[in-house]
User: Fold DUF1656 domain-containing protein from Rhizobium indigoferae.
Amino acid sequence: MRFVEVDLFGVYVAPMSLMLIGAWVVTVALRRMVVRFGLLQHVWHPALFVFAVYVIVLSLIVLTVAW
Assistant:
């Protein structure tokens, strides 16, 4: 599949920017669940962990769209 621009209310947007926003939304939801259960306390560096989860979610979205 080719990554083509998306027409968003008359403005052409790169598909990667939409994937970045989607990954951010998923990561925020996952982070809220992890904080609610208190699992983020057991991580050595919480910010680094959340960033790694964001990269994993983003790569999964890109691979899913590309497939």
Q: What stands out?
A: The chain has one domain: 6-66. The first helix runs from residue 15 to 37. The first strand starts at residue 6 and ends at 8. The mean pLDDT is 91.
